Amino acid sequence: MSTQPVPGPEVGPSVPGGDGAPARPGVSRRGLLGAGAAGVVGVGAGLVGGRQLGGPGSAVAEPAPVAGGYPFHGAHQAGIVTPAQDRLHFAAFDMVSAEREDLVSLLQDWTAAAARMTQGRDAGPFGATSGPYDAPPDDTGEALGLPPSGLTITFGFGPSLFRLAGKDRFGLAARQPAGLRRLPHFPGDNLDAERSDGDLCVQACADDPQVAVHAVRNLARIAMGRASLRWSQLGFGRTSSTSTAQATPRNLFGFKDGTMNLKAEEPGLLDDHVWVRPEGAADQWLAGGSYLVARRINMTIETWDRQPLREQERVIGRTKATGAPLSGGEEFSQPDFTLKGRGDEPLVATDAHVRLVHPDQNRGVQMLRRGYNFVDGSNGLGRMDAGLFFIAYVRDPRTHYIPVQMKIARGDGMSEYLQHTGSGLWAVPPGVQPGGYVGQSLFTG
Ligand SMILES: C=CC1=C(C)c2cc3[nH]c(cc4nc(cc5[nH]c(cc1n2)c(C)c5CCC(=O)O)C(CCC(=O)O)=C4C)c(C)c3C=C
Ligand SMILES: [Fe+2]
């Protein structure tokens, strides 16, 4: 089943109103952009132009390429090593249909829409203002006139898609990777079920929040009858760099975040720590993919803001000004955990965040962090509902995430200022080839 409209001879970019109204010229994103928007500044390496014609039957001339879009197709899904954009709309969905064919058709339809939207085109072939006059448009319209804005859409499959309450819902149980299990309860977790888990996840990142929201909204619209939105999270101000070309941003504690992150320019490390190495028959389909961990972490910023600078730096283990380790050097210097200072105390405290999470203290494991700040209003007691929506991509959550999180939960000085309120783990299938669909390897072979 496909919910994408099939274009008929009576429709096109200029459609007579069914009520006898005069012909209505359709407007598409690429039609509005074209040469006038050709000067839009690209947001990083790998950007492409490449606007295409609208839906079948379109008589619109090919506009000039518009910069600002990342390729949708490739060996890996975009949105992992892509230079982290400024904005996030993350969404988790649950299947409402129990039919395997509905799951496959949903992934096919999502793939088609994502391939279009990431290139700055409308979600469907007719667009927001064209197509049959008596049918809902196949794009919602709020991105009309906006460039791709570096939009990437990354899809993931949760443990519940494979097995829920012991039930093999879609005939996929034999293909559930051993690493894809619900994350364990960590000490101090205060998780909200309405902000956790989900059969499917969508990470939409862009440099314009309207473009990211438009993407998720249209994917939710397309899913209707097959999957429904379980929860979603907006984010701003990326809290990581995923390319050496990017400056290190700051989180809501005011500290540089992302200094020691894995970067796109380190393919060997990405192979070691981010891309899945299949172990057997169950996870062969995940070769070239990854695992996405998401944690909604509330930060009690009002309490933090009352701490002396000395205490703030002690908790993180780095200086607030430059991000250099407290053991000395500059931002990108490796911390020396053996150096001692006044009172024979280690310069980087034993419960400092950067000591606990450093690869040297964790059997060498690293992760690719891709989180965002969030502020979801205030709680009526004068405190902001603010924090960090932590996202990490790892090769295997059992080795690369769970032990590190357990250590933070048990002994990180920063935990005093944090509360984990949402959580999820998804397997992120490999990239899509032209003509294929996201997650295809799970259903074939
Ligand atoms: C389980 C993994 C991690 C969680 C959860 C986490 C939360 C978290 N982190 C900060 C602030 C900073 N983290 C920094 C470094 C850093 N953090 C993790 C992992 C988790 N953080 C890792 C693996 C690293 C890199 C360690 C290394 O390789 O040296 C830093 C320092 C700058 C940097 O390297 O990025 C800061 C600052 C907050 C505020 C937070 C939860 C709200
Ligand atoms: Fe951290």
From TrEMBL:
Catalytic activity as recorded in UniProt: heme b + 2 H(+) = protoporphyrin IX + Fe(2+)
Compartments it resides in: Cell envelope
Pfam family membership, one: Dyp_perox_N
Protein's UniProt keywords contain Magnesium: no
Top-level taxon in the UniProt lineage: Bacteria
SUPFAM superfamilies, A to Z: Dimeric alpha+beta barrel (SSF54909)
Cofactor(s) listed: heme b
The Dyp-type peroxidase C-terminal domain, residue ranges: 248-432
EC numbers: 1.11.1.-
Family membership noted in the UniProt record: Belongs to the DyP-type peroxidase family.
PANTHER family in alphabetical order: DEFERROCHELATASE, DEFERROCHELATASE/PEROXIDASE
Function as written in the Swiss-Prot or TrEMBL entry: Involved in the recovery of exogenous heme iron. Extracts iron from heme while preserving the protoporphyrin ring intact.
Listed name of the protein: Deferrochelatase
Record organism: Microlunatus capsulatus
Lineage: Bacteria, Bacillati, Actinomycetota, Actinomycetes, Propionibacteriales
